[in-house]
Structure formats: C-alpha cells, structure tokens
Design goal:
globular; 5-stranded parallel sheet; alpha/beta; about 200 residues
C-alpha cells in the first residue's frame, strides 16, 4: 500500500481541520472521504449492497426519526459496504507525496483486517457534550433537518447516533490496540495536531 496516514473516528471531532493543517504544513496529499461518500454509496447501491441502497432511498424522517441505535449500526454497515471501493480509490491516487486521509469510514476492525499498522492509523472522537455544542454552531444543520416532521427529535436522534458511533469506535480501537484521541474541547487544536504528528512520526 502507498505511504498513507489514516485518521478515523466519529463526526465533529476535528479530523478535517487537523488533516488539512498537517497536509499543508508537510506538503501531503489530503484525501477527505466525505467528499466522495455519496458517490461511494451510489456505487455500492448499484452493486446491490443493501444498506447503501436502502439509505439512499430514505426521506428525512426515514433517516433521522429512526431509533439512534439502529442508525449507528447501519452507519457501520454502510462503511463496510463502501470500504473496498474507498481503498481502491486511494490506491489509484497518482502522486508522489505521502497521503493523509480522514473519514468515519476508517473503522478500526476494517483497518486491522486490511493490515494497517498501529503507527499508521488513529481515531479522533468527541465527547458527547463537545459534539452537541459544536453541531449546534454549524450553519448547515437546520438545512439537513428542514424536511423532518419533528426537528428537535431528529436532532436528538442524530446526536445520540453519533455518540453511540463514537463509543463503538473507542471500543474497537482499544481491542485492536489503535490510538484514540478524545476531544472534550479542553485540548487545543495545536496540541492535538502535535499528538497526531508524533504518533505518525511525520517529522
């Protein structure tokens, strides 16, 4: 596999910000999974992957008014369905630079099965309180939920889904001996960046 640094975790943890800064500082190629997520889901759905096919057909209530535990479980299932497509895309990147890539799709058990070393992968997850406070500041959240019949309930379900997702990521990282950084809002972005750089030994 190419010279790749992987950052997984859960939403609203700082993965994108950290990756962008490190990529710029060290002249790395930055690959953001979220930019291609819909494309990967569509490709998987076209190959009759059931969860991708199902979720692409759901309306807003169908997505956000479900039980959060079901949502979290299906999120893991979706990432499993697109994982091979994602890794294949990474391998096709035509550049001589090392790559730094981040996204929730980099699930610890999948990374372990792929043979990714502990020095090449880490996860960043937020505490529930930090996650909610920062989602509430994001201007695009109301647009995501605008067609829901109960926006407050939908938002609560969304936050619980992501919290459950983060807890499972932490559990898997502990089992597979992968590093986890927990962002509770009290650690500076510079400190987290330095921790990531030190772990990957980018210097």
């Amino acid at each position: 596999m190419k010279n790749i640094y992987f950052i997984g975790g859960s939403p609203c943890a700082g993965k994108s910000t950290i990756s962008e800064i490190i990529a710029k500082k060290y002249d790395l190629y930055y690959f953001k999974v979220d930019d291609y997520l819909e494309k990967y889901m569509q490709l998987a759905a076209n190959n009759n992957k059931p969860l991708c096919k199902k979720n692409l057909s759901l309306d807003s209530d169908g997505i956000w008014m479900r039980d959060p535990k079901l949502q979290a479980n299906e999120e893991f299932g979706i990432y499993k369905e697109i994982f091979d497509i994602l890794i294949n895309d990474l391998e096709k990147i035509d550049c001589n630079k090392p790559i730094i890539t981040e996204g929730c799709a980099y699930i610890p058990t999948l990374m372990k099965n792929l043979g990714i070393a502990t020095t090449r992968y880490l996860s960043i997850i937020p505490t529930k309180e930090f996650q909610i406070s920062h989602y509430q500041k994001r201007f695009w959240v109301p647009d995501v939920l605008k067609n829901c019949s109960n926006k407050d309930k939908a938002f609560k379900n969304w936050m619980e889904r992501d919290h459950l997702f983060a807890l499972e990521i932490k559990k898997q990282c502990d089992k597979e001996n992968y590093k986890v950084i927990i962002n509770d809002g009290n650690i500076s972005i510079d400190k987290m960046i330095n921790e990531v750089i030190k772990h990957f030994k980018i210097d």
